[in-house]
Every structure is written in structure tokens, then in C-alpha cells.
Design goal:
With 368 residues, the chain is mainly alpha-helical. The chain has helices at residues 3-20, 27-31, 37-55, 65-91, 100-143, 147-193, 208-223, 226-232, 238-265, 273-280, 285-318, 326-347, 351-367. The chain is globular.
Length: 368
């Protein structure tokens, strides 16, 4: 076993132990947490950075690499609009709602709430598949670890600590994932700018402006995902939430733009630049921590989406007025959703297909 795989195993063990203890003893501990501004910032960053990492890992993104770079830059302004104008509107539902479907129940009644619940569950469920699928692709490319093995190990780990601790476990996992992600991605940036990467002069296609505008809209919509709204409803102190949003906007923007710059600079026709570049680095602890940074970023988004799907689905089951044990549902549902996720990942070989599917679901919730 190489030092890189040892580091990967070490990361999984630390993440599992730190996130699983203490165990939530009642339903309230599974869905609520006392949040400070620092906790909200960490969980916002951890939840989003995996989304940015996956976008530069998935297949076929190189076909629109310059448009992607411009679109990412343009979409960052949307985070400021959310912090300044949209988050105050969402914050008035703190204490009344736990996620976007609860808000729609309060505003539009049973039919509006149920429609958005279904959309949010499908979005979070499928997006979790995208994240774990990207992680499996990375490990298969670099270490030749079978895809099914990577997928099963990932889901076993996040399902166990999600079922034991609920949102509290997710927040603790976000802290660990943020530390590893920031460390690994910072090392990647440092090493890349210290090497000779050739950035050829861009050749812009005929539909460059149209493609850039469409992708900007796509990234803007994807920014406002269910887990993100769930985080905005955690704190009763609006100033904590808004300050965390501003810090998140700056930090997330810096990291995603630099990673995008590296990925497209490392571009080779028919290959995925970021993974290809990492594969060329010398094996050892340094490359190991870079790989851990990307894996941690992806896992931090995957477990958030799994938790959001679990909470929303459990709430819908409870509304059916069946004799159910809420905390038991919260412990069982992550495993059921994980098993279904494994099936989806094995059916879809192209992660871009899944991204398109979840975008359609999310568009329905935005415009409903």
C-alpha cells in the first residue's frame, strides 16, 4: 500500500470517528444545531467546494472550457445578491422551516410544498450520486481502485455518520473536510504556479457569448441548491448568516477560479486536465494530500445532499399521518437512499448526464 492510500485510509477513519461521536439521542438533535457564524461559514464552504471540484472533474467539460471559466466568474456576483437581498427573505422563516420544502408549505400550502419536496429530494438524491461518482472516477483513474468498491466505501462511511448524528454529524464532517480540502487545494495551487504550464492563446468559438451566458445562468441556479437553503435556516442570528455568506463568497470564489485556471491550463484534447495533471505529479505525501483535498471537497457536498434528502423525505413520510418513529426513520433512510444511489451511479457512466438531470429538477423548484 502506497503512502497516498495510507493517507486516504487515515482521512476516512478520522472523518468517521470525528463525525459519529456523539450520537444524536432524539429527533431534535438530528435536525437542529446551535450555529455560530463560523459554523455557518465552514458548512457553506464545505458544501459548495465539492460542487466546484466536481465540475472540473466531469467528462466533456473541456469542450466548453473557456465559457466555463467566464461563467464561473460571472456567477460569483450572484452570491453577493443572495447575501444582500435574498438571505433576509429566507431568514424570516428560521424556526418555522428546516428546508426549502417547508418554506413552500408555509407560502403555498400542501400542493406547493409537496411538489417542491419531491423536487428537492430528487435533486439532492441525484446530486449525491454525481459527487460520489466523481470521487470513484478520481480514485479509479489514479489508483485503479474498482469503481464499485470506491462507491460502496464512500456510502458506507457517510451513511453511518449521517444516521448516527444527523445535521450535527454533517457539520462536524464539514469541519474536517474543510481542513483537508483547503490544505490539499492550497498545495495544488502552490505546486501548479511553481511549474511550467503552457496556457495557449484561447480560440473562442462562434457561440462563445451565448454559451457563456447559458452556463452563467446554469451556475447561478445550481448555487441556490436545497442544502444551501438548509444552511441559511440554521442560525437565528441574521448577522452571523450574512457575514458567513460574504466570507464564503470570497473564499469559494478564490478557490474555484484558481482550480478552474489550473484545470483549463492543463487541458489536453480528450482528457480531463485536472486529473491528468495530478497523475503527472511525483507519488508521495504531497500528491497524497492534494488527492485528499479533492476527495474531502467532494465528500463534504455528498453527505450534505444525502442529509437534505433524508430530512425532506422523513418530513414527507411524517405528514402521511402514519405511526412512524421519526428518529428511526432518520437512521434508516440514509442507508436506503445510499443503496439506490449506488444503482444510479452504476447505470450512468457519464456524470454530465446526471448534472443535466438535476438541473432540470432544480429549474422546476426555482420557477414553480
Amino acid at each position: 500500500m502506497t503512502i497516498e492510500l495510507v493517507l486516504l485510509v487515515f482521512f476516512i477513519i478520522v472523518l468517521f470517528i470525528f463525525s459519529s461521536i456523539p450520537i444524536a439521542r432524539n429527533y431534535k438533535q438530528m435536525v437542529e444545531i446551535k450555529s455560530s457564524g463560523s459554523k455557518i461559514f465552514v458548512t457553506l464552504f464545505a458544501t459548495a467546494i465539492g460542487r466546484g471540484s466536481v465540475i472540473v472533474l466531469v467528462e466533456k467539460r473541456h469542450l466548453l472550457r473557456y465559457e466555463n471559466f467566464v461563467a464561473y466568474t460571472a456567477s460569483l456576483s450572484w452570491l453577493y445578491i443572495i447575501a444582500k437581498y435574498i438571505s433576509p427573505r429566507i431568514h424570516k422563516y428560521v424556526g418555522k422551516a428546516q428546508n426549502i420544502s417547508d418554506i413552500f408549505y408555509l407560502c403555498y400550502g400542501q400542493y406547493g410544498g409537496r411538489l417542491v419536496s419531491v423536487i428537492a429530494i430528487l435533486f439532492s438524491f441525484i446530486y449525491c450520486s454525481v459527487q460520489i461518482g466523481a470521487c470513484a472516477y478520481l480514485l479509479d483513474f489514479l489508483f485503479e481502485i474498482p469503481k464499485i468498491l470506491s462507491v460502496i466505501i464512500s456510502y458506507v462511511v457517510i451513511s453511518i455518520y449521517s444516521s448516527l448524528g444527523g445535521i450535527r454529524a454533517i457539520i462536524r464532517a464539514d469541519l474536517i473536510n474543510s481542513i483537508f480540502a483547503i490544505t490539499g487545494l492550497s498545495l495544488l495551487c502552490f505546486i501548479t504556479f511553481d511549474t511550467n504550464i503552457i496556457y495557449e492563446s484561447p480560440v473562442f468559438p462562434d457561440k462563445f457569448i451565448a454559451n457563456s451566458l447559458f452556463l452563467s445562468l446554469t451556475f447561478i441556479i445550481m448555487t441556490f441548491y436545497p442544502s444551501f437553503i438548509q444552511r441559511l435556516l440554521l442560525s437565528k442570528n441574521f448577522k452571523h448568516t450574512q457575514d458567513a455568506l460574504y466570507k464564503y463568497m470570497v473564499t469559494y470564489g478564490i478557490f474555484t477560479l484558481i482550480i478552474g485556471f489550473i484545470a483549463y491550463g492543463c487541458y489536453e484534447p480528450g482528457k480531463i486536465g485536472l486529473i491528468t495533471y495530478i497523475a503527472t505529479l511525483p507519488e508521495g505525501p504531497l500528491r497524497g494530500f492534494i488527492i485528499l483535498g479533492i476527495v474531502a471537497a467532494i465528500i463534504s457536498t455528498a453527505d450534505s445532499n444525502l442529509n437534505n434528502a433524508t430530512v425532506t423525505l422523513q418530513a414527507e413520510i411524517s405528514k402521511l399521518k402514519l405511526k412512524t418513529n421519526n428518529i428511526m426513520l432518520m437512521r434508516i433512510l440514509p442507508f436506503i437512499l445510499a443503496i439506490l444511489n449506488v444503482f444510479i451511479i452504476l447505470q450512468f457512466t457519464n456524470l454530465l448526464d446526471l448534472l443535466v438531470i438535476i438541473l432540470v429538477f432544480h429549474l422546476l423548484s426555482i420557477y414553480s
